Amino acid sequence: MFPYFFYIPLILTFCKISYEFFIMEEYKLIVVCFVFYSFLASFFIFIFRKSRVKKEFDFESGYYKEGGKKLVRIEDISQFLVISHYCSSSSGSPYTAFQFGFYCKENKGYVLMDHSSYSSIKRDVQMISERLNVPYEILNEHDKYKPNPIRAF
Questions:
Q1: Using N-to-C axis directions, what is the helix angle for 27-51 and 4-23, rounded to 10°?
Q2: Is the Cβ–Cβ distance between 147 and 79 less than 8 Å?
Q3: 73-101 pLDDT, tens per residue?
């Protein structure tokens, strides 16, 4: 939800202030400090969750939507793709990430999600592919996308 670096200053300031209150033997202020930081963290979580864009397939209207805005008709989706690519973590160790998205008839691509678990993203793409009756393909980052001739036009 938040990058890890966001939590560090929040926790460190809470510990520092709580420690100062503990030294002064002001135990009630420790509780007040805890309540304040809990509300502060909840506020930030609420704000950042609201800023996320909701992506959905609306079967009633027949459109793929982002943030409530109709972008692509579901029947215009030509193919789902899972593209694997290599990344390095903050510690420098490499890992494989997977990007799940789709192409529509205009050959425009949309990214639905990024994930680090191959089995989870494969399960998701299979489920959505079967539900929408749209084929999917799993590619490596250097593979070239070739439109599905059956669905593309």
A1: 170
A2: yes
A3: 988 888 888 888 777 777 778 888 888 88
Tokens describing residue 35 = 């309540």
Q: How far is CA 61 from CA 35, 70, 109, in A?
A: 44, 9, 21
Q: Which two tokens stand for residue 137?
A: 């393909």
Return the ∠ at Cα 129 (arms to 125 and 134), rounded to 5°.
135
Q: Which two tokens stand for residue 13?
A: 């300031």
Rounded CA-CA distance 90/109 in Å is: 28
The pair of three-digit structure tokens given for residue 94, joined into one six-digit string: 């490499």
Looking at the chain, the whole-number percentage of residues with pLDDT higher than 70 is: 85
C-beta of residue 138 within 8 angstroms of C-beta of residue 79 = no
Q: Quickly count: other Cβ atoms within 10 Å of residue 39's Cβ.
A: 10
Q: Are 125 and 135 in contact (CB under 8 A)?
A: no
* Other CB atoms within 10 Å distance of the CB of residue 120: 13
Q: How far apart are CA 65 and CA 75, in angstroms?
A: 13
Strands of 28-135, DSSP E: 55-58, 63-66, 69-73, 77-88, 94-104, 109-115
